[in-house]
Amino acid sequence: MPTSAPGNKARERARRTRRPVAGFTLLELLVVLAIIAFASAGVAFALRDSAGDPLEREAQRLAALFDSARARSRLSGLPVRWVAVDDGFRFEGLPANALPNHWLSPDTVVTGRRVVVLGPEPVIDPQAVVITSAIHPGHSVRVTTDGLRPFSVSTAPP
């Protein structure tokens, strides 16, 4: 019968074999590193290009202004035109200061078509305006409509 008195060899052997393992195994460390790598790659792909954000914000604002001017034109029955000018733009056919007439960023430039007819007909011709930034001329955004749907924003091809 084993005793638990000090110096008992069976007790010392049992204590040595039940000792917990200190640290992690190599496989556990590799799994954790793989999880961290996937998470950091996902975050890197989720980050947006900060150069395009002001231009995209400008395009979203312009699309909303186009839809607002189009609704006002249909309500009043008077034609409304948007015209790009050197220091901004203007809406012809609406009362003065009815809608904003300037860009949020002074670096915004209209390339291509500089006049958009917004109504009063319920269906208008397909129209598009391409805006770009003077700071980043390689990045441009297109504000378009097919004539039936509201204006939408898409990245313009280079």
From TrEMBL:
<dbReference type="InterPro" id="IPR045584">
    <property type="entry name" value="Pilin-like"/>
</dbReference>
<dbReference type="Pfam" id="PF07963">
    <property type="entry name" value="N_methyl"/>
</dbReference>
<keyword id="KW-1133">Transmembrane helix</keyword>
<protein>
    <submittedName>
        <fullName>Prepilin-type N-terminal cleavage/methylation domain-containing protein</fullName>
    </submittedName>
</protein>
<feature type="transmembrane region" description="Helical">
    <location>
        <begin position="21"/>
        <end position="47"/>
    </location>
</feature>
<dbReference type="InterPro" id="IPR012902">
    <property type="entry name" value="N_methyl_site"/>
</dbReference>
<keyword id="KW-0812">Transmembrane</keyword>
<keyword id="KW-0472">Membrane</keyword>
